[in-house]
Specification:
The chain is an all-alpha fold. Helices cover 55% and strands 0% of the residues. The chain starts with 18 loop residues before the first helix and ends in a 5-residue tail after the last helix.
């Protein structure tokens, strides 16, 4: 069983992520992207599908955009920052 520790953060300050970095390290960039693809493929078939685009091209854009965000949030390359400008912590 995983023991999650919940901590508070200060708006505008980058939280000290430790565990999410392990996910990116273990999966690598390509594996992380594949995980995100599978996640969204499952989500669009779920009870909350109405929150996500059903059009394949639009969903692919969401997948790519959000993958860049989470890769950076997990300590990876600054793909999201290069595209959008910055991650607000």
């Amino acid at each position: 069983m995983v023991n999650y520790k919940v901590t508070t953060t200060v708006f505008g300050e980058r939280p000290d992520f430790k565990e999410p970095r392990k996910i990116l390290q273990e999966l690598g960039r390509d594996g992380f992207g594949a995980m995100m693809d599978r996640f969204y493929d499952i989500v669009v078939e779920s009870d909350i599908a109405n929150f996500f685009p059903q059009d394949k091209d639009m969903l692919d854009k969401v997948k790519k955009h959000n993958t860049k965000f989470f890769v950076e949030a997990c300590g990876g390359e600054k793909e999201y920052t290069q595209e959008v400008g910055h991650i607000i912590w």
